[in-house]
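Render this sequence as a predicted structure.
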Amino acid sequence: MLRARIVDQLKKAMKAKDEIRVSTIRLINAALKDREIQARSVGNRSDLGDEDISELLLSMVKQRRDSIDAYEAGNRFDLAQREAAEIAVIEEFLPEQMEEEQIVAAAREAIQQVEAHSIKDMGKVMGKLKESFKGRMDFSKASKIVKKLLH
């Protein structure tokens, strides 16, 4: 379903001659094809599901945020602006992301469920969160929160 929405939005962006949307959605399609090729090479013949696509989109957003930081540090605000515009397009296809309070609550619950007591148990907690909230949670934020809660 998400794949169809991406294709539909590409067509609309092409008709509207929206350069940034077209190029960003084409980047999304290219990343999806790469991921599917990788999956086939390990024997997975099915297409990517919505959760897998969301996970890929989240990683694309993270890459662009990292790029923005680098561009701003190098006083390349024009490039940082372009990355921000791409993030806005990519985020249109993501399910609503959890707010920080929701992440804290989910992290506390996961800590209880896996009976985590120290930072050594962080992998178990993060595994539980990834299993439960794939595509809806920013795991870099979650990691920081779990670390703070386990100290």
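Summary. The first helix runs from residue 2 to 16. The CA atoms of residues 130 and 139 lie 8 Å apart.
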